[in-house]
Amino acid sequence: MEDPSSRSSLNNASFSLCPSVVTLYFLPSIYAFLFLTALPGNMLSLWVFLRCIPSISPTHVYLTHLSISNLLMAVIVPFLTVYYAWGRHWAIGDIPCQIVLHGITPVLHINIYISLLILTWVALSRFAVLIRNTHASRPSACITLLPHGFFSSLTRVSFANSMCAMLWVVTVGGIVPVTVYYSVNEATKSTKETEEVGCEMVCYSPVVELGGRVSSTLSIALVTLFFILYLLVLLSYLIVLRHIKRSRRNANITSSQSLLARVSRNIVVIQVVLSLCLLPYHIFKPIFTTLAHDQPALLHSSCPDNITCHPLNIFIELKNCLFLLAVLRSATDPVMYFLLDRTFREQILRLLKKNKTDFNKKEMVWSTTGSVNQKTDNVGEGNVILCGL
Question: What sign does the dihedral 83-84-87-89 (CA atoms) show?
């Protein structure tokens, strides 16, 4: 008896994708813009965290790892630009397509979910410290549910480093096996089935874009994880609001009100980032998976280079646009750092002010002496004072 999953794969392989202007021009253009913004933005952020901040806090550790993940994303973005523009001209066995399948796909998903875990942990850890160190009319129930040593651990840099290492291990260990199975087993198997009927599978094809039944089913676990973490951040914000209401009834609220307001704002920023960038993709992904693998068998012809467009062509393009929205988060994260962390914000403002002052002095020296050599030396000294190089 024929394996149903094999029949489904062959059906997918028998249709071609008909890329529209969105795939051929819009996605490559936005990914190119993303590369030009995410790379310098995250390089600057990482440099500030590592070289310009004299006293590193646990939050700086989390944001440093987030910047590293975003830099990895920024490096691979040009491959996505080329994939959407030229993927329909590559054979699935060509080296560029293999790079996309075996290298780019795992890094993309690792970036999305390591960022999700880090952002959630930043929100929850700040929430826990807030609940422990601010006053209210009565203690929060969250304090009694968590061990006493947990709160002190949250303030240690060593704990933050260990937590980040664990998050990387969990993310890589959970995503790599699924993406490897997808790229090695499902895509390769469908390619062989297509070659048996005398066809050459292209890279931008239903097989690659839809994925197999096993990998798509396992991806639902990641969607479930997202909604669990998303609701945790939302719940923490609601508890903070309740805590603020209680603290206002306390006579000794002067020292804690600023902390309450700051943490509340930070959790809101994280919630907005998750809602705008990641929520739409994770809402659509289960719908897309259901449409792709739980529908009746599709009529198909013998080769993927025919003019018959896949019935889910528009849904595939919508999925890619929502995935782009999730990837865009890596370019907006430096803005989030600016809003989340006061020390980071102060260092960036000092850098901007210093550069503006140096530029004005340089213009003055040039206009009066015609020489900039002495000013160049002064700029170097200013950077040493600022960032401790």
Answer: negative
